[in-house]
Amino acid sequence: MGRVMTKSLSALKSRKGPRNLASIDPEVLPYLNQGILETKNLMEALALDQRVLAREVFDIDVDDEIQSLGITRRISAVAETLLKAQGDRWVKKAISHPSDTVRGWACYGLGLRCTDLQTGLEKIRPLATDSHFGVREWAWLVLRPHVVEAPEKALELLKPWTTSSCSLTRRFAAEITRPRGVWCAHISLFKEKPETARSFLETYQGEMEKYAQDSVANWLNDAAKTQPEWVRGITKSWEPNASSYMIRRARRSL
């Protein structure tokens, strides 16, 4: 017999994210695996069975070993399988799917077929400003190799993003260009010569949204690990215009 569900879907949507895998509500998993609910945090993303989700949404089988991979490789592997089986036609459906994991597949579907950064940025933009934090991470991670390959070109292409009216767009531009970043290759040029990005960073002096401030501060903190005096200087020059929170966070490793 199937599991008897005791909680409404609306109640499950308002749940808090579990602290570990053992504390995941068993009534949540079926909805995650069917693509009906979004994940609340990394714990739920890890518990979700992407093999089941791929069958539910796209009627396709993926290798059983996928579930044993790390979360980033898991997302990428499903996207690779879909690209081989269905070409690009599944991506449009995935971009607007209710499941954040499916939209994550869309990020990699676009990224894996990306041949130049300019086109990639144009296509990834709806996902870079997605409502779900996880999708926003996949969006910049999948294009990060192109930024590492041509960092100065990336600054040129992303400069207009830094003045967007959308704070998610501004945050994306700062996050994808960080000298060190998270779960990704470093950018040697920005670690050794962060002044290369000075005009790019200057547009963030008056940033008011904390989400974008965090990424800008993290950018500068990355640079401070190799060029501390440069970071001292630029943050000093920003003091009249920038938030004290952003400056403190940028200087935390000094």
Account of the protein in words:
This protein is mostly helical and 254 residues long. The chain folds into two domains: 23-149, no CATH class; 151-177 and 191-254, ARM repeat domains (Serine Threonine Protein Phosphatase 5, Tetratricopeptide repeat), CATH 1.25.40.290. 59% of the residues lie in helices and 0% in strands. It has 16 helices and no strands.
Sheet with most strands:
none
Tally of individual helices: 16
Radius of gyration computed on alpha carbons: 20 Å
Show unreliable segments. none
Describe the global form.
globular
Average pLDDT works out at: 95
Helix content: 55-70%
Q: Hey, roughly how much beta strand do the residues contain?
A: under 5%
Task: Sketch the topology as an H/E string, one letter per element.
Answer: HHHHHHHHHHHHHHHH
Oligomer: single chain
Distance between the termini: 60 Å
Compute the number of structural domains: 2
- Which structural class matches the secondary elements? mainly alpha
Number of strands: 0
Summarize the structure.
The chain is mainly alpha-helical.
Characteristic key phrases:
254 residues, Serine Threonine Protein Phosphatase 5, Tetratricopeptide repeat, 16 helices, globular
